[in-house]
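Teaching assistant's notes for section 4

Start the section by putting this record on the projector. Ask students to predict, before seeing the second block, whether Activator of Hsp90 ATPase 1 family protein will look compact or extended. Collect guesses on the board.
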Amino acid sequence: MEDLKYEFYIGAPADTVWNTLVSPEGTRQIFFGSELRSTFQVRDTYEYVGPGNDGEETVHVYGTVLQYEPNKVFSGTEHPGPSYYSNHAELETRITFTLETVGQCTKLTLVNDQWPANHPSYPNASSHWWMILSNVKTLAETGRTLDLGW
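Reveal the predicted structure now:
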């Protein structure tokens, strides 16, 4: 499967974009009401938890932190939550968010790679990342999100 790579230029400083990506307030607004929970220590776990199939505490995505440098990079393994697929533990990819200052803007790059053959989440991921990252850009620049009908 092909790697998913997205680049956005955002008219906001890196710390604003970073907070949108990792703070509970930011992630609830950009990740379908889910909160990112983690110690952010390398080799520790992280989870996106929010309303879903298992109620208010549904684990939508989880993984292990591979790299974490505030305002620069967050990388981890990624699995769909247990309520999505019975073989969720086998369905591992990697996500890497990288921030870079470009003039008065922040370049946000997301790479979602290491897809195993026939991963059932690939079609949704390839379309949902565009919406999520558009919301990151809009929230960081304006303080509000897009109305995507969620």
